[in-house]
């Protein structure tokens, strides 16, 4: 086993005597049962039947709620439930989803996200039309904790179809949210599961890059999936600590080790430098938002991580500007408190 592959879970093929449905909708959860009802309802509304679609909730040993109770109340025995014996972290829980799946097409749907009508029909059509497609994803909607639309992901091309130069594009920027993508099971069997070196973030991007090195990818222009933004999630915690950006740098290092097998070193370095600058800009944008609500700890962590990610003139200039704003705000805070009192 190569050094790279030792961090990827092995995804075995489905035994020949096992009934293999077309779909496996695998729903990883952790302390999000209050959203699970909406998630399950969005899937069950499109349920073609147990012979065609496996639906299973895989819980990472939740401690604050009871997702199994939600499953039984809403779906009875139609939806399977598996609980990890102990908390294993979301990346390993994702891999458990892959290992427990039986379908030819796998959809990992976070327990707080949902799909819109026609998601499964449209995705199935993409795979039927283009046998060479290894994965298909759609435009998606970002929703808040109250399920209100916030914004829609950018339109990558005017019509649904195969993406051209997709490997180069996905290297530069994360365009995909996990609930919006479906992957053939045989792709995971060939490439392995999600890389265990990631703690909170970017393990999905590394997987989409890995897939793009060897398979065609289909894009559906209709926004048929919804990704929930919430502060209490794993991603919300990692943003506060800056660990999200640490995982970004880790991801860049990982893909840099194998991308020269598919693109020239010069192109790889150019694209990854663009990723570094884009990721650093995202961190500084986050810092700017957090500064407006007085979250100094998050501001500091995001500025520091942005500068570790990119040393471009643009990033340094924006980071210094934000740092000065933060410093002035901290100096004026006790003065404002005295005035108000």
TrEMBL record:
Molecular function (GO) terms for this protein are:
transferase activity
Protein name listed in UniProt = Family 2 glycosyl transferase
Keyword set includes Transferase: yes
Origin, by domain of life? Bacteria
> By its UniProt entry, which InterPro entries does this protein fall under?
Glyco_trans_2-like, Glycosyltransf_2, Nucleotide-diphossugar_trans
A UniProt-annotated Pfam family: Glycos_transf_2
- The segment(s) forming the Glycosyltransferase 2-like domain are 24-190
Keywords from the UniProt entry: Transferase
Q: Which regions span the lipid bilayer?
A: none
């Amino acid at each position: 086993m190569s050094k790279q592959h030792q961090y990827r879970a092995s995804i075995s093929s489905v035994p020949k005597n096992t009934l293999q449905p077309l779909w496996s909708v695998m729903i990883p959860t952790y302390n999000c049962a209050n959203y699970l009802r909406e998630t399950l309802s969005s899937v069950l509304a499109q349920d073609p039947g147990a012979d065609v679609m496996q639906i299973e909730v895989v819980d990472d040993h939740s401690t604050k709620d009871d997702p199994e109770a939600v499953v039984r109340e809403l779906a009875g025995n139609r939806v399977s439930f598996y609980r990890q014996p102990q908390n294993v972290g979301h990346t390993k829980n994702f891999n458990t989803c892959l290992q427990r799946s039986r379908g030819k097409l796998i959809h990992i749907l976070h327990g707080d996200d949902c799909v819109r009508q026609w998601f499964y029909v449209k995705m199935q059509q993409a795979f039927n039309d283009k046998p060479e497609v290894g994965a298909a994803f759609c435009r998606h909607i970002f929703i808040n904790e109250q399920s209100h639309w916030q914004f829609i992901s950018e339109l990558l091309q005017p019509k649904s179809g195969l993406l051209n130069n997709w490997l180069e594009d996905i290297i530069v920027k994360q365009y995909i949210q996990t609930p919006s993508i479906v992957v053939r099971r045989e792709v995971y069997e060939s490439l392995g599961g999600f890389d265990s070196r990631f703690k909170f973030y970017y393990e999905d991007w590394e997987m989409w890059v890995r897939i793009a090195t060897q398979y065609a990818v289909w894009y559906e222009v209709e926004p048929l999936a919804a990704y929930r933004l919430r502060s209490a999630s794993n991603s919300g915690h990692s943003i506060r600590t800056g660990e999200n950006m640490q995982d970004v740098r880790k991801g860049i290092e990982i893909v840099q080790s194998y991308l020269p097998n598919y693109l020239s070193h010069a192109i790889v370095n150019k694209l990854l430098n663009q990723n570094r600058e884009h990721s650093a800009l995202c961190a500084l944008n986050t810092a700017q938002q957090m500064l407006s609500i007085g979250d100094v700890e998050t501001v500091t962590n995001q500025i520091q991580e942005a500068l570790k990610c990119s040393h471009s003139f643009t990033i340094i200039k924006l980071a210094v500007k934000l740092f000065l704003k933060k410093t002035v705000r901290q100096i004026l805070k006790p003065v404002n408190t005295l005035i108000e009192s």
